[in-house]
Design brief:
This protein is an alpha+beta fold and about 375 residues long. It has helices at about 15-30, 30-50, 80, 105-115, 115-130, 135, 140-150, 175-245, 275-285, 295-310, 335-369; strands spanning about 55-65, 150-155, 165-170, 260, 260-265, 320-325. Helices cover about 55% and strands about 10% of the residues. The chain has a four-stranded antiparallel beta sheet. Strands 4-5 form a two-stranded antiparallel sheet. Helix 5 (about 115-130) crosses helix 8.
């Protein structure tokens, strides 16, 4: 009968790990020169890179909404010139009076220009590309755009705490050019904002001039027709008065009194007598202008002249406030030399240890053979 072989118990040497660890350190110590050499070489390479790499400088400007007084140039003069008047001279009757610009109105337009693709593309074409060499300009356009977008960035402040705060940042190897680009970009957005506002105001001015001019012409045409109607009525009344031989006013003429430019009873006009009617006809037929007889005409005409004379002066208007200007940086943000050297030392040490272990294993194999 076969009996199973007795189970053999294996006892591990509690000092085995210590012996292995000791051998490891012994092997590394034997290769200490290799470790030092590898570490020194890698560190030297890192140091050379840190010293020769092109430095990159960063500068930025912080933008906020302009103060209320800085935008008053858009409201001064415009509010008076753009007010509405009616035929009676009352202001604002038609409900189309110009609304004053607010800080939010102005800064909203500036923000849209600052972040617009049109402005970024124009800056890329007119400023960034000309700064490159002819050879660099021939590179893939998408690649150049990606590089440019890394160089120039726009960041908005916290939506809850600083929604109207914006930062324009440029990272470039030339600190002076970096600061200049930030200011150029901000100025281009300012110019674009002022152009849009001026265009909008001038378009509004043109619409109001045309509307008021049409209103005045309409009033003049109506007054002319009313005068012609009155002349015809007086001619008919004169014919009747002359037909019945009524030269002077009759007692019935009190019922035919004038109410402004209109008669109360047109059938009794003849009772004023031919003499009076001839005088009235002579005055109406010789009248060269109906303007003095139109209620509120002078007010309307004055308003039209104000509109035509209005000219926007935005030279002293600010559409944005530069809270922090872009200064010329003196310290590069890249490369970080101390960090590069530190990484070189660590990486060199790791590679040195790895090389030492491989060399030790190879030597042991040769000795065992």
């Amino acid at each position: 009968m076969n009996h199973p072989a007795p189970h053999q118990s294996y006892s591990s040497d509690p000092n085995a790990d210590e012996i292995d660890l000791f051998e490891l350190f012994q092997s590394l110590w034997q290769e200490k020169i290799l470790i030092v050499l590898v570490t020194a070489v890698i560190t030297a390479v890192a140091l050379i890179y840190a010293l020769t790499a092109t430095p990159v400088y960063q500068t930025q400007a912080t933008l906020v909404a302009p103060p209320a007084f800085a935008i008053q140039g858009y409201n001064e003069g415009r509010m008076e010139a753009f007010r509405e008047v009616s035929e009676s001279g009352d202001k604002g009757v038609r409900g189309l009076a110009a609304k004053p610009f607010t800080v939010d109105d102005i800064f909203k337009i500036y923000r849209s220009k600052l972040n617009s693709l049109q402005l970024r593309t124009a800056f890329f074409e007119e400023v960034y590309l000309p700064s490159l060499s002819a050879e660099e300009q021939q590179k893939n356009r998408d690649g150049l755009l990606k590089t440019f977008n890394k160089i120039l960035s726009i960041k908005q402040g916290d939506a809850k705490t600083d929604p109207n705060l914006y930062q324009v940042t440029v990272e470039l190897d030339d600190p002076a050019v970096a600061a200049d680009w930030v200011q150029q970009y901000i100025d281009r957005a300012i110019i674009a904002t002022k152009l849009e506002l001026k265009s909008n105001i001038e378009a509004e001015q043109k619409v109001r001039i045309n509307a008021l001019d049409l209103q005045i012409k309409s009033l003049l045409e109506i007054a002319k027709r009313e005068r012609e109607d009155q002349i015809n009525l007086l001619k008919e009344a004169l014919y009747i008065a002359e037909s019945i031989g009524l030269e002077n006013p009759s007692p019935l003429s009190d019922k035919a009194s004038l109410g402004g430019n209109r008669y109360i009873d047109n059938d009794l006009i003849y009772t004023r007598g031919a003499k009076t009617l001839r005088a009235q006809l002579d005055i109406l037929e010789k009248r060269t202008s109906d303007e003095p007889f139109i209620a509120g005409f002078r007010e309307l005409n004055t308003q039209l002249e104000l509109l035509k004379a209005f000219s926007l002066d935005d030279s002293n208007v600010s559409v944005v406030e530069i809270d922090e200007t872009a200064e010329v940086p003196t310290t590069p943000i890249k490369p970080k030399k101390s960090l590069i050297v530190a990484v070189g030392i660590v990486l060199g040490g790791m590679l040195g240890v790895f090389a030492a272990l491989i060399r030790s294993m190879i030597r042991k194999r040769k000795n065992a053979a």
